[in-house]
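ok trying again, last paste got cut off:
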Amino acid sequence: MTGAPANIIVGNQVGRTYLAAMTNELVEIMLNCRRCAVLTGAGISAESGVPTFRGKQGLWKEFKPEELATMSAFMANPNIVWQWYNWRRELMGKVEPNPGHQALAELEDMFTDFTLITQNIDGLHRQAGSKNILELHGNIHRNKCAECNQHVAAQTDIDPDNIPTCEQCGGRIRPDVVWFGEMLDNDIISTAFRVSEESDVFLSIGTSAVVHPAASLPMMAKRSGATLIEINPERTPLTELADFYVSARSGEFLPPLVEQLRGRRTDPKA
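nice, full thing came through this time. structure:
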């Protein structure tokens, strides 16, 4: 599909009319697609109440994230870095997947090939039931060795005053997230580019579309002929290039879309 995006304004009668019409059109398109790729960003996590990167009070007011989420910070003061990550894990452990996460988990079963690519590290997609996930920036609930990158047991609690070492090489254990100045995992980002290029339909959800290389994925899909759908309350650099722009939160738009898809796919006349 080419031309100007179908901008949908939600919150008034005209918006609801357009929303219903565009949802029907999207269902028709998606019913004829085999391969679906989805990119999610901070917006979908914010709907669950995932806290922001920075603390509003106490110790963490004194630090900028880029002073903590770096290898140099970890090498210089691993105790402080682990205190910060334990604090963040505790906060994220209190949030639950929202209807947007859950709808994407259902959507996975409706395509021959489905890949969920996320910039988020909170693990909520997996908690919601999604299976084929590419976590571009890692997962805050996992740990790995700072030296050899060997993954260690999930959900391992870390005592900042007694940081464990890797059984393989003796390096100190760190959070399995991508820090400032670090490259993304080559296998993960290469797979993300491949599935984006091969997709028939690509959904960009709750992402600012400015941080590369993730921001390149929807454009690659678009150039390769995929129908590009953006779901975001705020317009982004991607908006004017999308085939469909849905000005709504994922938890508002995705559940009814998935419900219609599910109904049509089980309809013997479909």
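cool. Strands lie at 6-9, 35-40, 113-118, 133-135, 138-145, 173-177, 201-205, 227-231, 244-247. Confidence is low (pLDDT under 50) at residues 1-7, 9-14.
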